[in-house]
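Hello,

Following up on my earlier ticket. Below are the two sequence lines again, exactly as submitted.
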Amino acid sequence: MKELQGKIKQLFDDKKVDLVIGWEKGSLPMSSSPLFINNPEDINKLIFDETCQNNLAVYLTKDKRRLSKDNKKIGIVVKGCDARSLVLYCVEQQVKRENIVIVGVPCNGVIDKKKVLEKTDNREVLEYRCDGNKVFVKGRDFELSINKIEVLSDSCLSCTYPDAPEFDEFIGTPRSEDKTKDEFKNVNDFEKLSLDKRWATINKEYSKCVRCYACRNVCPSCYCNTCFVDQNDPQWIGKSPEITDTIIFHLIRNLHVAGRCVECGACARACPEGIDLLLLNKKITKEIRERFDYTAGIDINEKPAMAAYCENEKQDFIMG
Amino acid sequence: MAGTGRLEYPTSIMALRVLCSSRIDPVFLLKAYLKGADGVLIGGCHPGDCHYETGNYYTRRRFMILKTIFDSLGLKSERFRLSWISASEGVKFAKVANEFTETINNIGPNDTKNNMFL
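Thanks for your patience. The regenerated structure is below:
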């Protein structure tokens, strides 16, 4: 933590940045809030731990401020997945690479609040502490010690890029790709189900959706000025949380982020109903990796899969 | 060309003109399906023949993803078909249209027509 604060201070001293985006301690236990440092005095508020689950890259493109448009030098503290979003922004020309200073931090996964609440039977957590591999939570009439791995976010359990693939400064030594994890375990399990079962699973999951659009709002890859669900001429989908429209919304969102999803899992963590939103995204990622050998947000010079083509690629799905 | 060549193709087809096959957003297909279309056929120029040089290559990738999603959801992806038929290939258009109609007839009507989901 001290090292991170020192590095940010140094960036301000060297006049390399006008603004730094990081995390500060949140007002509730187990939470963190985004911190915008305009003034070096605020640096000591900066933290990084397993509660820092927001993907801060979104503030560059979709926040009302649209920070990327001012040509300011912005420093941004990132985990592996956030850095991949930034690479994606550079590739898609939303952000100029020279305008951002990427400060990578070593990430060991973030916790999912919903999983902790499941452990405590939805009783309110008043105190939270993390020590190595253990998480301690305390409430009014209970005290629990949980293995950290049990409350880690799903996306972190299958994360293969824990550290930033592209950075200017790094706290510690960056690790490269982690190949030991089975990234597509859930997808493979899902594919083994029969047709009807698959449809039933999807129907059951998505019927919980209340269409709050939280998943869209936190998604770093969803930054259209007007989302297709907000358009009313032509109106693509109805406004009510009806299963038909809901599934269309999720399918189209999957298609829009196809080959651009960095699997930060922000959508699944933001979902108030706990829908497994990553499943279909992972399925597409897997397909794209197999067919086009492309992984989003790794190489700053490579075009996204859906904006590139290869003349002689397989077209077995086309009938004549 | 199918019309001027006096070729027959099924009357159940409603043709919609777009300027390039890459103009077709997956949302068009889903919307058509939801509104009760039994199938959607996309005709595009052959790879390498695109007036805009690269349009149909993008379509090809997009269509692949759409099909993948449909398959993995357990829906019938045969209701969507992409074929390379250029503007001058009237004979091929009539052939594909007949074939596709037959496929759809075999699958049966879109049971989700005016129903809840897809």
